Amino acid sequence: VATLTANLDDLKTQLKAKKAELKAATKELAKAENKKAAAEAKAAEEAKKGEAEDVLKKLLASGMTAEEILAKLQ
Question: Coiled-coil intervals in this record (predicted)?
Fold first, then answer.
């Protein structure tokens, strides 16, 4: 009985350690996912900005004035 109790206590200690490791890993994963989402959002914003600049350059090159472009945007 004493051996079983000691074994059970050892298993409980191991379980507690594993739960702590899992919690830490889950926290790290959430942090990495948030960082990835922020990076993707920033990349999408940069792509939109680049696309808008390209469209603006094409319109200006086609002879449209800045005032005409602003009027179309409003």
Answer: 1-54
From residue 67, how far is each of 56, 59, 64 by CA, in Å?
12, 11, 8
Range of the domain at 50: 2-73
What's the number of domains the chain is made of? 1
Tokens 């600049």, located at residue: 53
Question: For residue 65, what is the DSSP state?
Answer: -
- The per-residue DSSP string of 5-61 comes to HHHHHHHHHHHHHHHHHHHHHHHHHHHHHHHHHHHHHHHHHHHHHHHHHHHHHHHHH
pLDDT tens sequence across 53-68: 999 999 999 999 989 9
d(CA 12, CA 47): 52
